[in-house]
Write a structure and sequence with these properties.
Number of helices: 9
Bound molecules: adenosine monophosphate
CATH architecture of the domain at 2-115 and 168-188: 3-Layer(aba) Sandwich
Largest sheet: 5 strands, parallel
Helix content: 40-55%
Structural class: alpha/beta
Length: 201
């Protein structure tokens, strides 16, 4: 099954994607992690994206769609994946639908982690403090503000896109991590798809 974890920066998408990967064996496809790996490896792609990411802007749709398309061709993604931080624009969402349709598949559910704005900013600030400011170049108060603006403008409209497809499920992202994980399990367990039943038991 192919799932999207959806929510603003700091909502806990990465944490829940990691849990799903451990529990269901679904690979976590985080475009942010892939881009940071490209930067760390000093690739051409990384060089092109570094400044954009440090500003808190989005890298181009072509770049992230290309990365995801290559990743989906890997054998471990044949039965499903959890998308974390992708798609972030309507164009990316449409490209993802096309990519999956070409693989005789589709998005099964989009799980929105709903959080309240103030608490989210608090979470992000503590992430900055815990990392000593060194873990992520884009975890600064200025960039965080920019990333939230970009989220509201470019990414939030995807909620209506997926709602209209009947795929949007919302969970309380403010709940403790294990509770969020169990709400997600309940949503996935409610799926009628064969490949999911038995995994979630
Ligand atoms: P994340 O780790 O998901 O918060 O992503 C960190 C940064 O990587 C974002 O602020 C963007 O600059 C870039 N990025 C990650 N995913 C995408 C995407 N799907 N589309 C465009 N830019 C992305």
């Amino acid at each position: 099954m192919y799932l999207i974890l959806f929510g603003p920066p700091g909502a806990g998408k990465g944490t829940q994607a990691t849990i799903l990967q451990l529990e269901l064996g679904l690979p976590q496809l985080s475009t942010g992690d892939m881009l940071r790996a490209a930067i760390a490896a000093g690739t051409e792609l990384g060089k092109r994206c570094k400044a954009i990411m440090e500003r808190g802007d989005l890298v181009s749709d072509d770049v992230v769609v290309g990365i995801i398309s290559d990743r989906l061709d890997q054998p471990d993604c044949a039965a499903g994946a959890v998308f974390d931080g992708f798609p972030r624009t309507i164009a990316q969402a449409q490209a993802l639908d096309t990519m999956l349709a070409g693989r005789a598949s589709q998005i099964d559910a989009v799980i929105e982690l709903k959080v309240d704005d103030d608490a989210m900013v608090g979470r992000m600030e503590s992430r900055v403090k815990e990392s000593g400011g060194s873990a992520r170049a884009d975890d600064t108060p200025e960039t965080l503000r920019r990333r939230l603006e970009v989220y509201r403008r470019n990414t939030e409209p995807l909620l209506a896109f997926y709602r209209s497809q009947g795929k949007l499920k919302t969970v309380d992202g403010m709940a403790p991590i294990p509770q969020v994980a169990s709400e997600i399990r309940a949503i996935i367990g409610g799926s009628t798809r064969k490949d999911v039943n038995g995994l979630t038991g």
